[in-house]
Amino acid sequence: MTTPPVAVITGAAQGIGREVARVLAARGYATVLTDLQEPAETGALTVLGDVSDPDSVASLASQVRSTFGRVDVLVNNAGVSLLRPAEETTAEQWRRVIDVNLTGPFLLCQEFGRDMLAAGSGSIVNIASIAGLQGVSDRAAYNASKHGLIGLTRTLAAEWGGRGVRVNAVCPGWVKTEMDVADQASGGYTDDDITGQVPMGRFAAPGDIASAVAFLADSGMSGFINGVALPVDGGWTADGSWTSLRLRKR
Ligand SMILES: NC(=O)c1ccc[n+]([C@@H]2O[C@H](COP(=O)([O-])OP(=O)(O)OC[C@H]3O[C@@H](n4cnc5c(N)ncnc54)[C@H](O)[C@@H]3O)[C@@H](O)[C@H]2O)c1
After folding, report:
1. Is 98 inside a domain boundary?
2. Which CATH number covers residue 93?
């Protein structure tokens, strides 16, 4: 009997990560759910921990090794938002966002990348953002972390692709999750502000992001795709139209 492929998903308790875990489990992966908070769903293994803490990441990797003896897919999804004008962002706030959104994925890539390199195969999918491709005001730390995550993705793709490990990023547009609800409460923007920017006229759904992750995870589907930053944004980053022109096309 062959053992199922193993997928590790960070930030799996809610939002995009929860949906990614559900979709990968439905596709036959044994899922490892990790988060600061207890996930509502159960995967094959659940490990609580902080992605920005090297000891916590090492302990997660050793539990995956002892439980499954393999890892096939890593989805770096855990992230935090910060809406703050650049001139008011404290060094502590800056560091926390970079720690969770960029250092965390680096630590996880290192730990699980070593196992994938030893096995000669694996797929890493980093959840960046369209804020990793463009500037958006009042998000200096967040945008820098996501630009950095895309840089990390491209570098690891170059470094590890020749040894069977693909590394890609998914760049969601705005998604209706707990993160967006909290951001709207603190950030003074509305649903219409967002949908007005999107040629397809809606928010992304968590399932839109999870489908792209499942595609990039699966070497049978995306085996020669390595180092891309794939926008899943309904055309937001492609569209240089001014808003009234865009809205006339609806
Ligand atoms: N919602 C959006 O509009 C949107 C758009 C683009 C990109 N993203 C990115 O998608 C990812 C998921 O976002 P979401 O909207 O589902 O957010 P969310 O806040 O709803 O969920 C994030 C999850 O990550 C966990 N988490 C936070 N810090 C952690 C840490 N240090 N260690 C472990 N787990 C931690 C949280 O507990 C939570 O369960 C993030 O990286 C986010 O930046 C979101």
Report:
1. yes
2. 3.40.50.720
Within 6 A (CB) of ligand 1 lie 10-11, 13-17, 35-37, 50-52, 77-80, 100, 127, 129, 172, 174-175, 177-180
Residue 1 has pLDDT above 70, yes or no: no
Q: Which of 34, 56, 177 to mutate to test the pocket of ligand 1 (most atoms within 8 A of CB)?
A: 177
Whether residue 186 lies inside any domain: the answer is: yes
Which residue has the least CA distance to atom 23 on ligand 1? 11
Answer whether residue 41 is part of any domain. Answer: yes
pLDDT (average), residues 71-92: 98
What range does the domain containing 120 cover?
Answer: 6-238
State the Rg of the chain over Cα: 18
Q: How many domains does the structure of the chain reveal?
A: 1
Residue 99: exposed, middle, or buried by beta-carbon count in 10 A (0-12, 13-18, 19+)? Answer: middle
Q: Which residues pair with 139 in a beta bridge?
A: 84
